[in-house]
Amino acid sequence: MFLVRRIFKVKRGTARKAAEVITEIGNMYEEAGLRTRSRVYTSGITVPGPVDTVYMDWVEEALKSPYRDDNPKPEREDELFSQLANYVDEPSTVEFYEMYSS
Prior knowledge:
This protein has a four-stranded antiparallel β-sheet with strand order 2-3-1-4, with helices on one face. The longest helix is centred in the first third of the chain and has 17 residues, at about 15-30. Helices cover about 25% and strands about 25% of the residues. By secondary structure, it is an alpha+beta fold.
């Protein structure tokens, strides 16, 4: 299994608003059956870490290309990413971690 973490650097003071949209994006993918439940969280200001940063992570059984033919596009995808564009300061990055269980 893999933990996938997407990191969003957002415009100053917009982390909370961006996190709301990112949460909607995660819910959209989960409701479409394309992802497991995601977690959205921030760093900076009230907790250690980079300021104006929002994270979303979820677990995948296997890493697959998002451009594969059998990956349908959810109905609200364009709308939500358009909303998110109002807050994002630079392109998001993605990190992958292999998970181990005992």
